[in-house]
Amino acid sequence: MKPNTLMADEMTLTNMPPILLDEHAIAKLLPKLNIKAELTALFRALGEGDAVQPAQTVTDFPTGAGDFITYMGAIKSAGVFGAKLSPYIVTDAKPIITAWTTLMSMQTGQPLVWCDAAALTTERTAGTTALAVDLLAPHSVRRLAIIGSGPVAQAHLRHVATLRNWDQIAVYSPNLTLERATQWQNFDHRIRIAATSSDCLDASDVVMLCTSSGTPVIDPADTKKPSLFTSISTNAPNAHEVPPAFLTMSQVYCDYLATTAQSAAEMRLAEQNHGWNADQIIGDLAGIVCGSCAQPSADKPVYFRSIGLGLEDIAMAYGIWKLAQSNDEWKTT
User: Fold this and answer.
1) Torsion sign across C-alpha atoms 234, 237, 243, 247
2) Which end of the chain is less crowded, N or C, counting CB atoms within 10 A of the terminal residue's CB?
3) Dihedral angle of Cα 212, 216, 222, 224, to the nearest 10 degrees
């Protein structure tokens, strides 16, 4: 049965007062959200032409003070459209990165919810990677490697922990503290803290890159096998987690064919310097979910690149809004 969590036929979007959901409200609602079902339904809608995903836009602040990315999308079956705004604010210390999503009705043009999207972004990023792992990794895989140790990496592990029968989960981060290493090992008995990235990748079937690095963090050859590699985005200029040349020897997939190649730095660099072309991308999540693109073969590495889509943010905000509507604490009708 197709997931239908995006369908709006059970509730009207007409004349609904907008609600504000801050980080505390999101924290209460998020554990109840079926993220895999929401994302699967979203990518099916995208593949069937029932959703629209414009390219994300970057707006620079004056005098080098930072920038903000706008992630937009519209989903007809849900009857909603909206945008997430994610600023990168330069300070004398660590940059400030926040995110808020506004969701609006396609029926009335009125706002439905304005929600803090920080936690939602982390979970939709990890959930998208997990969906790709579930769709692209053979069911026989047993060894998982994770590069990174922060909240995004932890979310990735939560989302993939039960997708396969992992025998070993190796984790590496160059700045891993003893306290955080203990947290990781307490999370799952299969976790092994690796001393180096090479040690982490050795013999791994799936490698999830979960960093905010602006430069490559691994040598893909360290797996010593044709593994699946997943990579995410950060706001840092030209950020990329794998060597651009790696794309020339990989079976490349992405979250959305129409926009990923223009946003992913390693793809632009691979085109400029290594003779790779975006036409070599085999497919995206919409194509994989709908069965309209080829599955990878077992004889070459697979690379999945996620840049983060406005539609993912819209789907998450819509799911959270539906939960809020069924909760007396936030109900507006």
Assistant:
1) positive
2) N
3) 100
Measure CA 299 to chain center: 26
What Rg do the C-alpha atoms of the chain give, in angstroms? 20
The one-letter amino acid at 167: D
By the 8 A CB rule, do 279 and 331 touch? no
Question: 170-181: b or e for each residue (b if 16 or more CB lie within 10 Å)?
Answer: bbbbeebeeebe
Query: pLDDT tens digits for 62-103?
Result: 999 999 999 999 999 999 999 999 999 999 999 998 999 999
The pTM (predicted TM-score) of the whole model is 0.90
The residue ranges of DSSP E strands in the chain, in sequence order, are 19-21, 51-52, 57-60, 66-75, 80-89, 96-97, 100-105, 111-116, 143-147, 168-172, 191-193, 206-209, 228-231, 251-254, 283-284, 302-305
**Local structure of 285: helix, strand or coil:** helix
φ, ψ dihedrals at 156, nearest 5°:
-60, -45
Cα separations (Å) of 186 from 139, 160, 190? 26, 17, 10
